[in-house]
Fold:
Amino acid sequence: MRYVSTRGAAAELGFADVLLAGLASDGGLYLPAQWPQLPPLEELRGRPYDQIAVEVMWPFVADDIDRAAFERIVTEAYATFDVPEVCPVVPIGSSVAGRDLLLLELFRGPTLAFKDVALQLVGRLFDHVLAQRDERICVLGATSGDTGSAAMDACAGRDRVDIFILFPDGRTSEVQRRQMTTLGAANAHALAVPGTFDDCQDLVKAAFADHVFRDEVHLSAVNSINWARVMAQIVYYVTAHLSVSPDGAPVSFVVPTGNFGNVLAGWAAARMGLPIERLVIASNRNDVLTRFFTTGTMAITEVVPTTSPSMDIQVSSNLERLLFEALGRDGAAVADLMSTFRSDGSVSVEPAVLEALRTEFDCGRLDDTAAAAVIREVHDRTGLLLDPHTAVGIGVAESMLVAGPLADPTVPVVCLATAHAAKFPDAVEQATGIRPALPDRLGDLYERSERVEHVPADLGAIESLIRAELG
Ligand SMILES: *Cc1c(COP(=O)(O)O)cnc(C)c1O
Structure:
C-alpha cells in the first residue's frame, strides 16, 4: 500500500514512513492511494476485537510489517482495555418514544477517552518500526488534557520512544494531570509550564521550527493528523456494525466531533465497503463543521470554551482528507483551497461538492445547557452517567429521530461515546448532582506519587531540559 499527500506535491510513501512522518512534506495529510475492501462481514462476525482489527488494518500495513508481529502488537494494544469486547455497544433507549439509541463505548482504555483506541496501537507501532530501523524518536506535544494523557500512557515504557508533554500549570483537571504525572516511566515526562494551552502549543511549534534541535533529538509528534490514528479508528465502526446489524443492513453513526478525526474514520470504513446509512457530525457551540456542511463555507470564528473542551476547535485539520476525495483527488485544488483558507480565514466549495458530501453526512449542534439536560435525562431514565462530549452526540441524534436523517426506525443508530463521565466530573456533577467515580482500575490515581518537571515558558530552557533528560 502506497500513501499519497492531499496536496499532491509530496512523494508517495509506504506505511512505516507515513507513521513516522505524520504530516507530508508539502503540508498535506496522507491517504491510501486506493481504498482496500473489507473482508465479507460474515467472515468477521463473532470473532474477537483484536482479530477483526488485524483483518481490517492488514492491507494498510502489509508491505511494511510482518504479519505475526502485527498480530502481537494489536493484541497487546487492546489488552490494555478493561473489557474483552474492547469497544462494547450498549442500548440506552431514548427520550423519543419507541426509538432506541445504541452507545458505542470508546472509553474503556487506560486514560478513559477514545484517543486510547488509536494511541495504544500507535505507540507500539512506533517501537516496532523504530527497532527495525535501529532509530529512536523524541515525541514532543502540548496538551490541554486528553491527548497528552493518552499519548503519554501509550508511549510510557516503550523502548525506542521518549515523550515530553507540555501542559498549562494549574489549568488541566486533576484527573488529567495525574494521568500524566503518575505513570512511573523513566521515558515519559510531564512538563508544567506557566501560562495557557496556547503558550504550550507555541513553545512546541517553536521547538519544531528549530531545525538544529529537531534533527539532533529526532523530534516527532503523535497528533491527530497521523494516518495510523485514523486507521485504528476504522475498526470500531466495523465491530459496532457487526454487533448491531446481524444481517449486514446499513447503520447510522452519530459522532461528537472536534478535529474531524473520529468521524473521518467512519467515512473511511464506508469507502472500504461498510454499509453506512448516515454519518452525523455533532458539534458544540464551536460549530465550524456544522456551518460548513450546511452552507459550503468554512469560516474561522473565536473559539468559545464549553463543557466539552475536546471539541473546542475552529480548524478541523482532518477535513482536508475529505475535501481531497470530494475534489476528485486533485492535490493542487486542495492546496489552493487551504492557502485561501489560511490567508482569508474563510473558504467555500462549489454547490455540487457540498451536495455530494450531503449524500453521506448530516450535522447538528448542541449548546452546554442542552447537553446538561441530556446528561440529566439519560441519568434519570437509565442510571447511566454520560460525559459532556457524548451528550452532545446523543442530543443531536435525538433531534433527528422524529423527522430528519435518523427517522427511519429500521436503521440502527449508534452514538459514539468518546469519554468516561469521570474524566469530566465537574460538568457531570453540575448536571446531575452526582460526582462520577473513577473506574476501579484507576481507583488509586489520587494516592499515586506524581513526577512533574516545572519549566519556564522559554524555548531555551525546555530544549536544555530535553537534552539533559536524553543524556
Ligand atoms: C478528541 C476528542 C473528541 C474529538 O475527536 P476528533 O477526532 O477531534 O473529532 C471528542 N470527544 C473527546 C472526549 C475527545 O477526547
About this structure: The pocket of pyridoxal-5'-phosphate is lined by residues 113, 115, 146, 224, 256-262, 310-311, 389, 418-419 (CB under 6 Å). The CA atoms of residues 45 and 352 lie 38 Å apart. DSSP finds 19 helices and 15 strands in the chain.
